[in-house]
Specification:
single chain; alpha/beta; 2 domains; two-stranded antiparallel ribbon; about 60% helix; about 10% strand
Length: about 350
């Protein structure tokens, strides 16, 4: 038996023994130095999957159980009709008001109706919150999919934005990247503009909380170029916030995650350089400083391209305004010509 104790922020497991050959083989394949971190990650991810799977099936499960109950009740009613005597048939007829079986059936249907109403009310309360989360969930999945399709490393990318920590408001991240060494980089995704430079809505604060919870080596806050337009403090699509924390703004409308890929590459290589030990096999590394130089060049080019698009959009708008003015003058000329013709 294992002794499991809980605190507000952690779980302690003593004398835990896992009797599973496959699990034993997987753990045996891990480097001894990474076993504890890998096992913690496995427990966190497994617990999250089990919780999410159970939660998502609760409503459908209850509905299906009641549906099966009604079906079974109707089927058994038919059996009772075949077995009972003619004298008992009337008493057991579920359609005859006042009879015992009819009262039972009515009571069951009322209970089912009450429970169904409660479920629908709860769904209604969650519906608005669910709608608000839909865009964010889509953004998180697209981030994970893009990084998985692009990545040059043996890393995994998993949306984890649906996870919660009890009833608290602690941030646990939206997308989690895990390297082959078991190290993680957590990402915070923001589709709207409800985030700030300081205070409770500070992205730095959210990244700090997510890094602490995940025990991550770094964090990336991902916003959109549209959301950053009205924020003077976010004056670049790439910001280094210190302590291995980056903030980027992607062109979500055009599915352009270039700056995120660069940020991830830079952050990963920086983390690897900081944590490389003799126990980790030597691999070809990219100098983080060189990546930063190239990233800065790309940022300047992307910003210039965006500015030119804006200028072009303004020019197109002015051209349309000129066309409208030309049409107006042409109509006036035509009207005056008509007046002139009438005089002649």
């Amino acid at each position: 038996m294992s002794l499991i104790s809980l605190t507000k922020m952690s779980v302690t497991i003593k004398d835990l023994e896992i009797d599973n050959q496959e699990t034993r083989n997987i753990v045996n394949d891990w480097e001894e130095e990474t076993r504890e971190a890998n096992l913690i990650s496995a427990i966190n991810i497994g617990a999250s999957v089990l919780r999410n799977r159970a939660t998502s099936g609760q409503v459908d499960y209850v509905k299906n159980e009641f549906k099966d109950l009604l079906t079974e009740l109707e089927r058994r009613t038919g059996e009772w009709d075949d077995l009972i005597t003619d004298t008992m048939e009337g008493s057991l007829d579920p359609e005859k008001e006042g009879k015992p079986i009819n009262k039972l059936r009515t009571r069951i249907l009322e209970e089912i109706g009450d429970i169904r109403r409660i479920l629908l009310e709860e769904e209604g309360v969650d519906k608005e919150a669910s709608r608000m989360k839909t865009q964010g969930t889509k953004f998180e999945q697209e981030i994970a999919d893009d990084l998985m399709s692009w990545q040059k490393y043996p890393d995994s990318f998993e949306p984890v934005g649906e996870e919660t920590v009890g009833k608290t408001r602690i941030k646990v991240g939206d997308v989690l990247a895990t390297t082959e060494h078991g190290w993680t980089i957590v990402m915070e995704a923001k589709t709207g503009n409800k985030y700030g430079d300081r205070g409770d809505k500070s992205l730095d604060k959210e990244m700090d909380e997510s890094m602490a919870f995940r025990k991550s080596k770094g964090a990336i806050a991902i916003t959109t170029t549209e959301a950053m337009e009205g924020k003077k403090w976010q004056n670049s699509i790439f910001l280094d916030r210190g302590k291995n924390r980056f903030m980027v703004a992607v062109d979500w409308k055009n599915d352009d995650y270039t700056i995120l890929r660069l940020a991830y590459m830079l952050l990963r290589e920086r983390i690897m350089a900081e944590n490389t030990t003799d126990n980790i096999p030597a691999q070809k590394r990219i100098d983080p400083k060189k990546i930063l130089e190239i990233t800065n060049d790309i940022i300047r080019d992307m910003s210039s391209a965006k500015k030119m698009k804006q200028i072009l959009g303004n020019i197109e708008g002015k051209i349309d305004e000129v066309r409208v003015e030309i049409d107006t003058y042409q109509r006036k000329i035509k009207d005056r010509m008509s007046e002139l013709n009438a005089l002649v």
